[in-house]
């Protein structure tokens, strides 16, 4: 079933989530504060917008509250990530998934109501270790 998803922050993580979900046929709104980044994503989202995701007025006028999912992929700016997550939950977005850069960031996000927190580098590290561990040993 088609999902309504807003992706905020279009760096490496956010842009790949956005492209993949759009390719699967979901309805995607892609938001970033950098206009060049936004225009580079115009073929990979249903709608795009240049906006500061810490500005409540911008989030409201973009109709973010009508989306079922929000993916917050702002990694470096902790304050922006936290503020945006808080506002999305206050606006009533049912599922807010947020990228965290470390354990402390994750803890804060969980406290303020993020529905799921992702630490991509950490999670990929764990998966890579499991892949190496489970790879068949070849006997020469
Ligand atoms: P990645 O590892 O996914 O490339 P990152 O974790 O290094 O990204 P940043 O580069 O800090 O994270 O941010 C990702 C994107 O979020 C950038 O394209 C940036 O322009 C955007 N961004 C940062 N702050 C805001 C904001 N307040 N509102 C909207 N977009 C923002």
Distance between the termini: 49 Å
Please give the count of helices. Answer: 6
Shape: globular
- Strand ordering within the main sheet: 3-2-1-4-5-6
Ligands bound to this protein structure? adenosine-5'-triphosphate
What share of residues are in beta strands?
15-25%
Helix content: 40-55%
Mean pLDDT, to the nearest integer, reads 96
Sequence of secondary-structure elements: EHEHEHEHEHEH
**Helix-and-strand structural type:** alpha/beta
The total beta strand count reads 6
Could you tell me the radius of gyration in angstroms?
16 Å
Largest sheet, described in full?
A: 6 strands, parallel
Domain RCK N-terminal: 2-118
Organism: Planococcus maritimus
GO molecular function: monoatomic cation transmembrane transporter activity
Protein name: TrkA family potassium uptake protein
Write out key terms for the chains shown:
single chain; monoatomic cation transmembrane transporter activity; 140 residues; alpha/beta
Task: Describe this structure as you would to a colleague.
This is TrkA family potassium uptake protein. One of its GO terms (molecular function) is monoatomic cation transmembrane transporter activity. This protein is α/β, with parallel strands linked by helices. The protein is 44% helix and 19% strand. It contains six helices and six strands, in the order E-H-E-H-E-H-E-H-E-H-E-H. A six-stranded parallel sheet has the order 3-2-1-4-5-6, with helices on both faces. Strand 1, helix 1 and strand 2 form a beta-alpha-beta unit. The radius of gyration is 16 Å and the shape is globular. The N and C termini lie far apart (49 Å). The relative contact order is 0.14. It binds adenosine-5'-triphosphate.
């Amino acid at each position: 079933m088609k999902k309504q998803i807003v992706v905020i922050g279009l760096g490496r993580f956010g842009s790949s989530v956005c492209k993949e979900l759009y390719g699967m046929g979901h309805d995607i709104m892609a938001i970033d504060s950098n206009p060049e980044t936004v225009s580079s994503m115009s073929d990979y989202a249903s709608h795009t917008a240049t906006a500061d995701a810490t500005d409540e007025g911008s989030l409201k006028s973009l109709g973010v509250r009508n989306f079922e999912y929000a993916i917050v992929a702002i990694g470096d700016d902790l304050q922006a990530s936290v503020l945006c997550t808080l506002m999305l939950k206050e606006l009533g977005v049912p599922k807010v998934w947020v990228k965290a850069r470390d354990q402390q960031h994750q803890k804060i996000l969980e406290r303020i109501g993020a529905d799921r927190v992702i630490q991509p580098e950490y999670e990929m590290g764990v998966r890579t270790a499991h892949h190496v561990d489970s790879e068949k040993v070849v006997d020469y």
